[in-house]
Amino acid sequence: MKGWRLASDIGGTFTDIAFIAEDGLLSTIKVPSTPQNYASGVIE
Q1: Which of helix, strand or coil describes residue 24?
Q2: How far apart are CA 23 and CA 13, in angstroms?
Q3: Distance between the two ends of the chain, CA-based, in angstroms?
Q4: Which of 23, 19, 15 lies closest to 5, judged by CA?
Q5: What SS3 state is found at 12?
Q6: Which residues are registered as beta bridge partners of 31?
């Protein structure tokens, strides 16, 4: 994934994730937050 950028906003209920590709394509996703292990919400 060379050239990709990732941003995440971990909230109490949902985690928002945004990906920007080299060509500028923006993709977003909203997943439930996982307070016991915040990283798993982003990885899954």
Answers
A1: coil
A2: 31
A3: 17
A4: 19
A5: coil
A6: 15
User: Whats the size of the chain, residue-wise?
Assistant: 44
Residues 6+ apart with CB under 8 A from 15: 8, 9, 30, 31, 32, 33, 34, 38, 41, 42
**CA neighbours closer than 13 Å in the CB half-sphere of residue 26:** 4
Measured from the Cβ of residue 19, the count of other Cβ atoms closer than 10 Å reads 15
Per-residue pLDDT of the chain (44 residues; tens, 9 = 90+): 578 999 999 888 999 999 999 999 999 999 888 888 877 767 76
pTM exceeds cut of 0.85: no
Identity of residue 5:
R
